[in-house]
Design a protein that fits this description.
The chain is α/β, with parallel strands linked by helices. It is built from 7 helices and 11 strands. It has a single domain, classed as Zn-dependent exopeptidases (Aminopeptidase), CATH 3.40.630.40.
């Protein structure tokens, strides 16, 4: 009797009760990816050398300082276009060492997030040959070409200097540019450097003042060899300057997004 009463009641209860489906897990919430707060990120573009002590002389007699300044201005423009409005170009006048000391002091006083020193390369005197251009004798060496990137292990933030150096080297490589490996060779003598990243062309230059004594991540970019007759023409072209500026800007943006601190925020964009 109990069984006869229980079964109809159980059936009625099952029929009337709302049918509960298994809980469906919603899509997992994606972790917020860091992105760069470009407006808060401060970049210093240090223009290597001075008008009075202009650095290397190109195969056609132009000064490295002029190459450095022109490239720095193009990089500055691209960074500004990308939202890095706090970018500053650092210039100096006068003799080499005093002007360099002043630039370092200025850079440290500016409390920047990153310093990039812009240079163009030459070769040791023993590799140079003579040629005539526009009726004048000049020196050249077509033996080497390509860019190189330097960091100092004595920099206050060597780890992040190396991080940015690798990002910059990768950006140049992505755009089809190659670094020069000749700094690893014994024939470079006192200018021989340790290659710390063979994929991206980052070298150590520990005693270089602009890298060693600045209190923010710092790299020195030798953008190309102006003592090489073919590469000098390429480095003077607007196309190459823009290509390098794009690589620098992309590296700055990636570095800004990765670097912990006030310039990093969570992105809500999908």
């Amino acid at each position: 009797m109990i069984r006869r009463l229980f079964l109809p009641l159980l059936a009625a209860a099952l029929f009337c009760a709302p049918f509960a489906l298994p809980a469906q897990a919603g899509p997992a919430k994606a972790a917020l990816a860091p992105s760069c707060d470009a407006a808060a990120f401060k970049v210093i573009l240090d223009v290597g050398h001075t008008p009075e002590i202009p650095g290397a002389i190109s195969a056609r007699g132009a000064t490295e300082y002029d190459f450095n300044l022109r490239l720095a201005r193009v990089i500055e423009s691209r960074l500004n276009d990308a939202g890095f409005a706090r970018t500053s170009v650092l210039l100096a006048n006068g003799p080499a060492i005093p002007s360099l000391v002043r630039r370092v002091a200025q850079a440290n006083a500016m409390a920047a997030d990153l310093l990039i020193s812009v240079h163009h390369d030459s070769v040791p005197q023993g590799f140079k040959l003579k040629w005539e251009f526009s009726g004048r004798q000049h020196e050249y060496s077509d033996r080497f070409k390509g860019h190189s990137i330097f960091v100092s292990s004595e920099n206050a933030d060597y780890r992040n200097s190396l991080v940015f150096g690798r990002l910059l080297g990768a950006g140049l490589k992505e755009r089809g540019l190659q670094y020069t490996p000749h700094y690893t060779e014994a024939f470079m003598g006192g200018k021989r450097r340790q290659l710390v990243d063979a994929e991206t062309g980052v070298y150590r230059f520990d005693q270089l003042l602009i890298l060693k004594t600045t209190r923010m991540p710092a790299v020195l970019l030798e953008a190309g060899s102006i003592i090489n007759r073919d590469e000098e023409l390429v480095m003077a072209s607007r196309e190459r300057q823009l290509l390098i500026a794009e690589a620098v800007t992309a590296a700055v943006d990636r570095f800004c997004a990765q670097k912990p601190g006030r310039t990093q925020r969570a992105s809500t964009q999908r």
